[in-house]
């Protein structure tokens, strides 16, 4: 007799507590020894996930409740990683939809719920963070019903069970304030209301690969759901490739999930999730099926990317100093490798030598890729993010976003003005009478580039923004460019405090003293709209007279710390971010001051000609 199985994904808006809930589920499933120390958010296992405190990749785990095995996929909540959620949904029969009991449903709640309902997955609603002093579960539940209705949920889907949780302490309640002290009500609900997987273990083999993973011991692993039949170790099977060809292969090693481990298995039957080792060249979306009688599954289709950035080799005078991989061959090979696992990414050649257009879902997604590459020893340059514009039936169309801004009442005017300048249209304003308001805008995706940092500056760090792709709309016309110019180094050398002191009143510096610079490198942001060439290497003239008052006058304002994301948000069309393992520099595309286009019309024309 086979073990009963349930397959669920945990989906939510960013930070609503998915990974924390998985911690609690793992702990209470008895998988760990009594005294075993567990790190928090144990599923956020890669370096960047831990540093940033967000989930980037969807990951599998499994627990046993009573006699039922529950396969769990933890998914990321940030909208840039929506592709991970889309593929996770392919693996499961139901979803836990987490909603922060104070924040309520937010744009990514809508996105993931819409995908889950479209896939006809059974939802269990989990109102999390009920311990928050500002929790308002009853009102949030109403908002969730409204959301379901808005998404055209069927009667059946509207009839979802609701649980109230504190993921941090690992408690689930059926009613707010009941005497539960564990997650048992949640486990019980999963077993009773998530349907067991369909599929006949004796039928024709049908498996779909939804993820690739890598293990030091086993190499490449394909993670897949067995939809029908039973996969047995040592048997010959067919891989149905994405191009429709059939490739015979022998399955040598199989694993199933248990907590943070994988158990070797002799066979895995329909309904379960399997990790298969040693299948060369297998890709996400491909099927594994019967060799004599192939019945491949439909490939996985997911939303198209909306944002693009040019990745090119580093051509700065400092190229090759820090990185190990610097050629266009290196860059191409790395991007191709990324495509194997990162399903929502595309890479296009566009006729330029040494440059590729990389398409993704947002600035963060691409920034994570760039950060990963620099840590691996790559050097590259990236251009300003652009929104994908399409032509359909002779019309130019561009993606449109639903944007939610949550800010203190006193900033309403500033926020409306800023969004107006980016062609945002206000649709709704809700005042919860907590001193903060929530405003909804419809805005072309182009208007979101660089918005977050500007909004934080304008609202002194108090605004929260969330956005969701709403659809496509007629191209809205040119968008205002960055309103400021750059302070550009006019020669190579080492920056000097005295020179910076003279320049800093012109704008804000990105470079402090003692930094090696080159001609065309950007040293700061000019307060005025044009670029200004500056000599940041100028030493103070030596005089015989020592004047203590002059030395004292050199007070340097600390430079703005340009992180990768800030640099990407900052650059204009005629600029690049240069990324190496140790440095992030900003530069003009044309380094030579004499050859550089000066007015924005020239800049636009030269950029259009080069792309
Ligand atoms: N007070 C309180 N805090 C919680 C609760 N659940 C999670 N948190 C906190 O919320 C923050 C985000 O938790 P995560 O588990 O990383 O959220 P997530 O949904 O996995 O986030 P992403 O994967 O990045 O979308 C962490 O600081 C948690 O400690 C809860 O029930 N109550
Ligand atoms: Mg998470």
What descriptors fit this protein?
globular, eight-stranded antiparallel sheet, 15 helices, alpha+beta, binds magnesium ion, 35 strands, seven-stranded mixed sheet, 611 residues, 23% helix, binds guanosine-5'-triphosphate
Major beta sheet, strand line-up: 12-11-17-8-9-16-13-14
**What is the typical, i.e. mean, pLDDT?**
90
Helical segment count:
15
Determine the fraction of residues in helical runs and give it as a percent range.
10-25%
Q: Would you tell me the structural class of the helices and strands?
A: alpha+beta
Total beta-strand segments: 35
Query: Per DSSP, what share of the residues sits in E-state strands of 2 or more residues?
Result: 25-35%
Mind summarizing the main beta sheet? Answer: 8 strands, antiparallel
Inertia-based shape: globular
Poorly predicted spans: none
Bound molecule types: guanosine-5'-triphosphate, magnesium ion
- Termini separation comes to 61 Å
Radius of gyration: 27 Å
Description:
- It is a single chain.
- The protein has 611 residues and is α+β, with helices and mostly antiparallel strands.
- Helix content is 23%, strand content 32%.
- The protein has 15 helices and 35 strands.
- An eight-stranded antiparallel sheet has the order 12-11-17-8-9-16-13-14, with no helix packed on it.
- α4 (107-118) links the parallel β4 (94-100) and β5 (122-128).
- α3 packs parallel to α4 and α9 (363-375) packs across α14 (564-570).
- The protein is globular, with a radius of gyration of 27 Å.
- 41% of the residues are buried.
- Bound molecules: guanosine-5'-triphosphate and magnesium ion (MG).
- Magnesium ion binds at residues 18-19, 44, 55, 74.
């Amino acid at each position: 007799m086979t073990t009963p199985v349930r397959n669920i994904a945990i989906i939510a808006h960013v930070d609503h507590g998915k990974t924390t809930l998985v911690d609690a589920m793992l702990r209470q499933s008895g998988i760990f020894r009594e005294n075993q120390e567990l790190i928090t958010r144990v599923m956020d296992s890669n370096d960047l996930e831990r540093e940033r405190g967000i989930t980037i990749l969807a990951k599998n785990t499994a627990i046993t409740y009573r006699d039922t095995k529950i396969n769990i996929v933890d998914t990321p909540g940030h909208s840039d990683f929506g592709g991970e959620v889309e593929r996770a949904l392919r693996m499961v029969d139901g979803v836990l939809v987490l909603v922060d009991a104070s924040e309520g449903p937010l744009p990514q709640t809508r996105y993931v719920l819409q995908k889950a309902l479209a896939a006809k997955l059974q939802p269990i609603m989990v109102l999390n963070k009920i311990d928050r002093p500002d929790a308002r579960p009853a009102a949030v539940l109403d908002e969730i019903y409204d959301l379901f209705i808005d998404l055209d949920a069927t009667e059946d889907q509207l009839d979802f069970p609701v649980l109230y949780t504190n993921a941090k302490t690992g408690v689930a309640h059926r009613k707010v304030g009941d005497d539960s002290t564990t997650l048992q009500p949640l486990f019980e609900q999963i077993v009773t209301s998530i349907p067991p997987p369909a599929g006949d273990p004796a039928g024709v083999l049908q498996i779909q690969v939804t993820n690739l993973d890598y293990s030091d011991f086993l190499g490449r692993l394909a993670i897949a759901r067995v939809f029908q039949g039973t996969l047995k170790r040592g048997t010959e099977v067919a891989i149905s490739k994405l191009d429709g060809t059939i490739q015979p292969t022998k399955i040598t090693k199989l694993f199933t999930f248990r907590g943070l481990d994988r158990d070797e298995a002799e066979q895995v039957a329909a309904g379960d999730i399997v990790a298969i080792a040693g299948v060369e060249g297998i890709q996400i979306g491909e099927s594994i099926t019967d060799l004599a009688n192939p019945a491949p599954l439909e490939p996985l289709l997911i939303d198209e990317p909306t944002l693009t950035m040019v990745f090119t080799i580093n051509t700065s005078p400092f190229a090759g100093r820090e990185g190990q991989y610097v050629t266009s061959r290196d860059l191409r090979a790395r991007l191709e490798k990324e495509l194997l696992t990162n399903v929502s990414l595309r890479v296009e050649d566009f006729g330029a030598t040494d440059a590729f257009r990389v398409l993704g879902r947002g600035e963060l997604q691409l920034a994570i890729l760039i950060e990963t590459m620099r840590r691996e020893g790559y050097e590259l340059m990236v251009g300003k993010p652009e929104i994908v514009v399409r032509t359909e039936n002779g019309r130019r169309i561009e993606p449109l976003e639903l944007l939610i801004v949550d800010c203190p009442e006193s900033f309403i005017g500033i926020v409306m003005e800023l969004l107006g300048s980016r062609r945002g249209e206000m649709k709704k304003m809700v005042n919860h009478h907590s001193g903060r308001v929530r405003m909804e805008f419809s805005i072309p995706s182009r208007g979101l580039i660089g918005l977050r940092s500007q909004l934080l500056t304008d609202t002194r760090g108090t605004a929260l923004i969330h956005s969701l792709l709403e659809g496509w709309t007629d191209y809205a016309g040119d968008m205002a460019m960055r309103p400021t110019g750059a302070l550009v180094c006019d020669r190579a050398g080492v920056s000097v405090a005295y020179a910076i002191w003279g320049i800093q009143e012109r704008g804000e510096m990105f470079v402090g003293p003692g930094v090696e610079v080159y001609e065309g490198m950007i040293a700061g942001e000019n307060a005025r709209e044009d670029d200004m060439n500056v000599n940041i290497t100028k030493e103070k003239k030596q005089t015989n007279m020592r004047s203590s008052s002059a030395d004292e006058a050199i007070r340097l304002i600390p430079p703005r710390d340009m992180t990768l994301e800030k640099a990407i948000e900052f650059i204009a069309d005629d600029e690049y971010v240069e990324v190496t393992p140790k440095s992030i520099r900003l530069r003009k595309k044309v380094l030579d001051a004499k050859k550089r286009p000066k007015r924005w019309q020239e800049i636009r024309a030269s950029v259009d000609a080069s792309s």
